[in-house]
Amino acid sequence: xxxxGPEDSVTPAAVNEKIEKFVRPQTxxxxxxxxxxxxxxxxxxxxxxxxxxxxxxxxQSFSIARRYGWGLAVGRDDLSCPLAKTAFGFEAVLPxxxxxxxxxxxxxxxxxxxxxxxxxxxxxxVYANAAQVMxxxxxxxxxxxxxxxxxxxxxxxxxxxVIETMRTSRPQVILPCYxxxxxxxxxxxxxxxxxxxxxxxxxxxxxxxxxxGGVRYPIPAWLRYTGEFPATYRRLETLWDAEQPSQSPAxxxxxxxRGEQDS
Length: 263
Hints:
With 263 residues, the protein is an alpha+beta fold. Helices cover 38% and strands 13% of the residues.
């Protein structure tokens, strides 16, 4: 079983390079970090309220980062989604919102393209199609086997992607929620996959190992077969054959001898 070698260094840029090579997602893989109070922000990140003049949903920040290639630092004053404010611990839990797991003790969520980030992520997030997510699942399970267990509620997929991944320390398959499709403009064909950063080395080894074993993207379709055509098409073959002059084997041999003499 392949181990992580010198060519598989575990930096955000190196992990991004392997995902881009073996999975080929349409948008940038993302690095996500939950920043604690007082933690300095990385260079070249935008604050949505102060720098862009807007407030965003967290799924919207994912989409800005993966489509524009920007780094964002999103805090309480940058958020437009009330449910995300509660789920991520930026606001207190009120009686009408009594369910769910909270990630308290954080001040901001930092989101940036994985290949351009200078900080250590907590989570790697990749939006992709179903076949590409399958490719990532196979890679994540390459060393340990078993299955990935995820749950879906059709809401707050940002919490599934970040909080649930951090809480369980396990990869997750993400079904984009209704809000992600509205505010993040996630497309109908897209799913997502997350993995804790501490398991990035296993993911890299799994991508390389499964590729060597023949699990690849784009999926290599089996094309070495003879296709079947309608009877009206096959009739042409019959008519063409009927147009050919009949010739006995002896006559054919004579034709060959004459041809050799002429040459």
